[in-house]
Amino acid sequence: xxxxxxxxxxxxxxxxxxxxxxxxxxxxxxxxxxxxxxxxxxxxxxxxxxxxxxxxxxxxxxxxxxxxxxxxxxxxxxxxxxxxxxxxxxxxxxxxxxxxxxxxxxxxxxxxxxx
Length: 115
Prior knowledge:
115 residues; alpha/beta; five-stranded mixed sheet; 4 helices; globular
């Protein structure tokens, strides 16, 4: 699992690449541990799933933990560009009600940039 991090319109965009299975979850958990060490007050984060073909319960757990960390600091985290299989995992787990999920990255960016 790789994470490409970029900044666009003062928003962190995290583009995930690879399977978010047990090994991928461990890798992304390491990324988020370092990420949390940075100032997070009011941080806006978009997690792009365009290159994630699969997600397991381990991956979901890491994302929920990251969402809670961002929210505790007054920030916002949204997800975007999921394939049908990944989106179904969020729906079956009920996490589509916890996360804001957008089809396109631009839509997610517009949503977190809105006052």
